Amino acid sequence: MLPTFTRFASPSRVLLAHAHKPLIHFPDRRAEPSPHSPHPHPAAPSDIRDAFSSFQEKLASGPHFDKAALQPVEALAKGGQVGGTGGAAAASNAVEDVFDLPERFWNTPSLRWEEKEMDAVMVSAA
């Protein structure tokens, strides 16, 4: 009679007999994409689910911004010339220099110069 430990298959042999099936599933790249029809999320509130078709109609109706408020880029430049002051810089609340802002905006480690940096700038001819 065979010893008991060889009579039964070892756990490693049982595991080897079964093919490994990964837990993640990769879609087939060559397969045709499945058609997608927009629908509300299953957990969406009932009022959104009921009004989803009207939402789709509004979304398909076109851009949802005021076209009259749009200006061409040339109109933003001063006098319509390249190099003019843009509309953002011409705003009344804009500042000319970062040091005109409160100290918390300009007194940061990235804007502080160390002595080594200042010496390097002063010595370089660039």
TrEMBL record:
The keyword Translocase does not apply. This is Ribosomal protein S36, mitochondrial. It comes from the Eukaryota. Keywords: Mitochondrion. GO terms for cellular component: mitochondrion. Residues 25-53 are annotated as: Disordered. Pfam families: Kgd4-YMR31 (PF10937). Signal peptide: none annotated. It is found in: Mitochondrion. Belongs to the alpha-ketoglutarate dehydrogenase component 4 family. GO terms for biological process: 2-oxoglutarate metabolic process.
